[in-house]
Amino acid sequence: MISATHIHAMVIHFPIALLMVGFLSEVLALISKKDFFKNTAFFLLLLGALGAIAAYISGGYAGDGIEDGPLKQPIELHEAAATLTLWLSIVTALFRVVIYFFNYNRAWTKWLGILLFTALIGSVVRTAYLGGQLVYAHGAGVELTLPEFNNSSPEE
Q1: Which of 97, 20, 14 is nearest to 54 (CA)?
Q2: Fewest CB atoms within 10 A around its CB: which of 72, 100, 113, 116?
Q3: How far is Cα of residue 85 from the mean position of the Cα atoms in its chain?
Q4: Quick one: how far is CA 46 from the chain centroid?
Q5: Are 100 and 139 spatial neighbours (Cβ–Cβ below 8 Å)?
Q6: pLDDT digits 0-9 by tens, 78-133
Q7: Would you say 32 and 79 are in contact if contact means Cβ atoms under 8 Å apart?
Q8: H or E stretch including 150?
């Protein structure tokens, strides 16, 4: 059976990839001045923000029942980082949507958008690192199943 932890592990990688590639497209748009990269960054940001919402919700279910014990502090750190990432993704996406629909292209809006996107990526990296620490350093969500060993030797 698939648990909430498994669903979170499956969902979380999509917004990470979408936002990272979106940011790369944003950088390429700055360098090349091509609308293709600007539009790509915009749509990947929107998809990444939607994915961040799904990842946050699935993470809430995955963390249920781990409020006490040795994982309390690492879970709380990851959850706080995820909350910041969620809000940064929503604010950055809404900012870009407003700029896009009102066609308000000023130098300050371009640079504020880049600053928000950069902060978002920094937050994504921190949240991902803390999530990785939960799994690889603390064993959160890891189910260990050992093979059955019998006492007979293979020669018997």
Answers
A1: 14
A2: 72
A3: 7
A4: 13
A5: no
A6: 999 999 999 999 999 999 999 999 988 898 999 999 999 999 999 999 999 999 99
A7: no
A8: none
